[in-house]
Amino acid sequence: MTSAPTIRRARADEYDEVARVWMESWVSTGLAEASNFLLANLRARVRHEIDNGWSLYVADDAGTLAAMLALHLPDLYLDQLFVAPEYQGQNLGRTLLAFTRSQLPDEIWLRCVRENEKAWRWYEREGFVFEKEEVAEMTGFTMKYYRWTKEGTAT
Asked: Which terminus of the chain has fewer Cβ atoms in its 10 Å neighbourhood, N or C?
């Protein structure tokens, strides 16, 4: 990575590629295996979530999608943050989180799969506070819920 990727809104013609980045990053956690079925589900989910209010962003590295970021701004919710495996370990996640804080400056909620310890430990280091655990009906995964607040803004 010579210069930092540009964070911008995803275009509709990139949704399938966004789903591919999402799948490859998710698979890199060791919690799933790549498959045409998973990719088809994520492609459908990207479109469904856009229709339900996602603000979808990508990290564009000179035409290559390096990461995807999905925010649901009305709910103060960081829904998805996935960095392509070949871009992991280069502070791109931190860049996307800083961008998220620019969009949601006072409070951010997110959830993480309990077994994805690398991710939730990273969010804890970034100032997110554990709130609760719940099983997600759609996936069956136990989710850890986190909240970040700008100092002095939320109760």
From this structure: C
**Continuous segment of H or E residues that includes residue 16:** helix 15-27
Report the alpha-carbon distance of residue 45 to residue 118 in Å, rounded: 24
Q: Calculate the alpha carbon distances from 146 to 21, 61, 64, 100, 153 in Å.
A: 24, 29, 30, 14, 16
Q: Indicate yes or no: pTM above 0.90.
A: yes
Q: In what order do the strands lie in the sheet with 64-72?
A: 6-9, 55-61, 64-72, 77-83, 107-113, 142-149, 129-135
* pLDDT band, residue 139 (cuts 50/70/90): confident
